[in-house]
Amino acid sequence: MKNKSKKWDTVDILSHSRHDWMNKLQLIKGNLSLQKYDRVHDFIEEVIIEAQQESKLCNLKMPSFASYLMTFNWSNHHFVLEYEILGNVLSLEPFDDSVTQWSKSFLDQLDKAVDFASENHLSITIDIGLEAEGVRFFFDFNGIIKDTEQLIEWLKAVNHSQLIVNEFHVNTYELTTVISLGI
């Protein structure tokens, strides 16, 4: 595992990406040799969906945020992150820095607050709704949170001109929060 503060250069990214693709191809090859064709089909579908989501994330024109999410699981964290983009993709370029900074800070707080020995999982859903609804970011954590008070205090205190924390819920086993862009 890489250090959390590592700055990824192009060679590091390409090397790690190639390693991930080789692992996926090995899984397909292994399942083919075991004649588990249904599993091969399912796995290929998972890879296609993952690639489509990665493409949608990149098409948001938020390069810092996209890079952060796509490389997050390559570093040493106490939870696994996945993401999904819903709706029609549009450019969110003006919000790249603020969303990236908020997300990094929030995920750092979460990383400190969770039980290190538990299976922890964070799902980020970016919902590009209708114009009246705007763009919303849903953060949904499942696992064990040791320090709920620290997270609650951070969520109450956070203030950013471009982002609005609409709601949040925190207990020992889950956390949900919704932020929207101050458009």
UniProtKB/TrEMBL annotation:
| Superkingdom of the source species | Bacteria
Q: In this protein, which residues make up the domain named Sporulation initiation phosphotransferase B C-terminal?
A: 62-177
Q: Pfam families under this entry?
A: SPOB_a (PF14689), SPOB_ab (PF14682)
* Keyword Ion transport attributed: no
Matches recorded under InterPro entries: Sig_transdc_His_kin_SpoOB, Spo0B_C_sf, SPOB_a, SpoOB_C
The name of this protein is Sporulation initiation phosphotransferase B
Q: Which organism is it from?
A: Metabacillus rhizosphaerae
Which keywords annotate this record?
A: Kinase, Phosphoprotein, Transferase
